Amino acid sequence: MRFSKAFIPTLKEDPADSVIPSHKLMVRSGMIRMLSAGIYSFLPLGYKVLKKIIEIIREEMDAIGGQEFHLPALNPKEIWEKTGRVEAFGDTMFHVKNRDYVLAPTHEEIMTFHARGVLKSYKEMPQIWYQIQTKFRNEPRPRSGVIRGRQFLMKDAYSFDSSWEGLDKSYELHDKAYRKIFDRCGIKYFVVGASSGAMGGSQSEEFMVKSDAGEDTVAYCESCGYAANVEVAQSKIPAVKRHEVSKKVYEIHTPNVKSIDELCEFLGIDERETAKSRIYIFNDEPVLVLMSGNDEVNETKLESALGGAVRPAHPDELKEITGADAGSIGPIGIKFRIIADLRLKDGNNLYSGANKNDYHIGGIDLKRDVPNIEYFDLRTVQTGEECIKCGSKLEVFKAIELGHIFKLGTKYSEALGAMFLDENGKENPIIMGSYGIGVERVLACYIEQNYDDRGIIWDKTLAPYQISLLGLNMKKEPVVSACEKIYGELTQKGFEVLYDDRKDVQAGVKFADADLIGLPLQIIVGERGLKEDLIEIKIRRTGERLKVKTAEIIDKVQALI
User: Fold this and answer.
1) How far, in whole angstroms, is CA 356 from its chain's centroid?
2) Phi-psi bin for 200: left (phi > 0), alpha (psi -120 to 50), beta?
3) Cα angle at 246 between 241 and 249, to 5 degrees?
4) Is residue 523, in this structure, part of any structural domain at all?
5) What is the C-alpha end-to-end distance of the chain, expressed in Å?
6) Is 409 found in the same domain as 278?
7) Is residue 142 domain-resident?
8) Are 71 and 220 in the same domain?
9) Could you tell me the pTM of the whole model?
10) Whole domain around residue 481: which residue ranges?
């Protein structure tokens, strides 16, 4: 491709609305342009990379027996209502105003709809169906460029099996395929246990990239490789001590004491002697949640424990429910459901709110005073806590989700009536899995891991072109002649070349654009070098420069690429 004919609108300055490196560099290098918040157009340079990622995904999905579909993005709303996901997605789902249609945020329902009509016998399974298709989610705060958008490209795959052992095999096939995809794309990633969220199902894993731009938070152990999204992560942390003798319950006047830290300072106690109370609403009923000290409630774990969506009680609800405002609430005298984090199991001599403003209660024995209490893992893991597997220190950090695999089970097949006959002629729901990759996220995450202060650094696999050919003064006939010869020979041998043949552009601008776009090799043809029969090759990643005889340039490029 000749630069003079290409549409590659590079920019010298970072766009005002960009924060993370991949967003800045994708805009500056002419790969994307924003149409509206969370909606991006891919320009030719960016779309070339996207197509290479898609082809890698397609090859690995086909290798495990996947069959490619292309499903409508416009879906009848009634199908989604049968699985309860219109409500589950809430405002995230786009609705068509004048028709009962929605824009698909994913395609479990539609794939199940098609499976229902054709997979009637165990003999017709297993099946793996996939597509690479546009999805729509009304993200309230789209940001970080293409990492979180309102319209995006996803590879979504679905497995259909007649047994749980078959689902295990399908899940393992996708796990291996995903590792190959990300390895081939040159991305450093790790795999974490995760929550299935609105997708439902049992086992779930996320393929993640460490990044300050991430919206997921991950607990990771460098020693043994344990990794989990904080939605499900656990750590080894001491339980609250149970003393041999339990004190009697007594009330303490604690004026203006609202937080655990203020209570500890006021009473001269350790935070591990306190039980913090929070009120949540579940199925329109209040639930009191007890946590040790300053431990934070992990709402995903709480929803898993309770079996459905929750919300924190509003400040104006607290007094009506408990008789007190936040900071003075506790378990004594509560008549509704009480659950507590496992750290507090059978703890005694604890301090908590008295359900009366400006008062707390001491001497609480959860075993004695709260007989119907239930215990679950409810806390959010923190950096420095011990790994649940090996005891080493955990690190908690932000990460970007590249891909997510779920064992869905029969959630969708039961809701939509996708049944099959087993070998005994008995009717059963099809057992499903769901497997997604954010295609644009693969591109953005590669850039997040491969750039410097001059621009992107591509490896040959994903690079939009393999070679930048720079003619430094295209008004000089020897330079033009040498460039045209090299361009012709390289393209004839199958190399992808971006030939900067612009005549009215200074050498400094060409160098800057070449580094910004970041192709693996730069071939620099200048009048001074040609006088010595030499052409320069620059390796973008290392900055290494090689002087090569004109006649040897093609062989050298072949050896390097």
Assistant:
1) 43
2) left
3) 115
4) yes
5) 18
6) no
7) yes
8) yes
9) 0.83
10) 467-560
Q: Are residues 437 and 475 in the same domain?
A: no
Instruction: Assess whether 346 and 417 both reside in one domain.
Output: no
Whether 195 maps to a domain, the answer reads yes
Residues in the chain: 561
Total structural domains within the chain = 3
- CA–CA separation, 434 vs 406, rounded Å? 5
pLDDT truncated to tens, each residue of the chain (561 aa)? Answer: 999 999 999 999 998 888 899 999 999 999 999 999 999 999 999 999 999 999 999 999 999 999 999 999 999 999 999 999 999 899 999 999 999 999 999 999 999 999 998 999 999 999 999 999 999 999 888 888 999 899 999 999 999 999 999 999 999 999 999 999 999 999 999 998 765 554 445 578 889 999 888 888 999 998 998 998 888 899 999 999 899 999 999 999 999 999 999 999 999 999 999 999 999 999 999 999 999 999 999 999 999 999 999 999 999 999 999 999 999 999 999 999 999 999 999 999 999 999 999 999 999 999 999 999 999 999 999 999 999 999 999 999 999 999 999 999 999 999 999 999 999 999 999 999 999 999 999 999 999 999 999 999 999 999 999 999 999 989 999 999 999 999 999 999 999 999 999 999 999 999 999 999 999 999 999 999 999 999 999 999 999 999 999 999 999 999 998
Residues 211 and 77 in one domain: yes
Angle (CA) 497 500 502, round 5°: 150
Residues 329 and 195 in one domain: no
